[in-house]
Write a structure and sequence with these properties.
Layout lengths: L1 H21 L15 E8 L4 H5 L5 E7 L4 E4 L10 E2 L7 E4 L1 E9 L8 E10 L4 E6 L13 E3 L9 E8 L10 E5 L4 E7 L8 E4 L5 E7 L5 E8 L6 E7 L13 E6 L1
Parallel strand pairs: 1-8, 10-16
Antiparallel strand pairs: 1-4, 1-5, 2-3, 2-6, 6-7, 8-9, 10-13, 11-12, 11-14, 14-15, 16-17
Length: 264
């Protein structure tokens, strides 16, 4: 009798296992992993000499080549001029299909048909990653490394920290001379000896809601080249500080050397 009960129990267990195995309505404890097929790019125009370089108005539209149809579609909405960026602070990045991208710089284009091509740039944008394409006077260079296409490896931060990266985007700065960034609030140099065309990694800095004044100094001195006064930060957010403009001038109407900051 005992053996019969064991046989019955074993047979029932096999039947239950079989029914479960045949059940296609599987419930996952965790959602299946899916990989993004998009990369994300922010475009920033800080090329003071772009009109001179291209021989056209400083009014640029960016288009993206679709490899399947071999046609270009617009990336930017309002054309970019000096000190403009796309997308805005509301939508920080534009989503593009990941892979090797061909980006066409055109003169205020509405579509491919009416777009006067200024030049093309190819960049590799990997899935799920974030980038800043900073347009400087190096844009005419054939070298991709001088296109300032930067991967935005933003930091996970504490509630009293910000992340900051410094980009030296003045290509006619004094040859072989570097700059420091000095923080009044911290009473310290937060970036040291950065040369033209260089970009630091993101660095965590201790900040509350207090505003700060940031000063560009010739490296190793207190000689001020430019400053950004009363800039405020949101704790927990990452920022890029850009030294931009024509390094040889200070007149406001001549796109002088100055600082610009944008968030991620």
């Amino acid at each position: 009798m005992k053996k019969s009960l064991q046989h019955i129990f074993f047979g029932s267990l096999v039947l239950v296992i079989g029914l479960v195995a045949c059940n296609k309505d599987t419930t996952y404890i965790a959602d299946p992993v899916t990989l993004s097929s998009s990369a994300y790019i922010k475009f920033l125009h800080v090329s003071p000499s772009l009109a001179t370089i291209t021989g056209q108005a400083d009014n640029v539209t960016l288009l993206n080549l679709d490899l399947k149809s071999n046609t270009y579609s617009k990336l930017t909405g309002t054309p970019l001029a000096y000190e403009r960026y796309f997308p805005t602070t509301t939508n920080v990045y534009a989503a593009v299909t990941a892979g090797l991208k061909t980006i066409k710089f055109s003169l205020a284009a509405i579509s491919q048909k009416d777009s006067l091509e200024l030049f093309l740039k190819q960049v590799q944008a990997d899935a799920g990653k974030y980038y800043s394409f900073i347009i400087t006077d190096s844009i005419k260079s054939a070298s991709l490394s001088k296109a300032m296409f930067l991967q935005d490896d933003i930091l996970t931060l504490g509630s009293t920290q910000i992340g900051m990266r410094f980009v030296h985007a003045i290509w006619n700065d004094t040859a072989a001379k570097n700059v420091d960034i000095f923080s009044i609030r911290n009473n310290a140099t937060i970036f040291s000896a950065r040369g033209a065309g260089s970009a630091s990694t993101f660095t965590p800095l201790n900040y509350f809601t207090t505003s700060d004044t940031l000063i560009v100094r010739r490296a190793g001195t207190t000689f001020a080249l430019a400053s950004l006064n009363g800039v405020g930060f949101t704790p927990g957010r990452n920022y890029t500080l850009v030294y931009k403009g024509n390094g040889a001038v200070t007149t406001a109407t001549a796109k002088p050397r100055s600082l610009l900051i944008y968030g991620h």
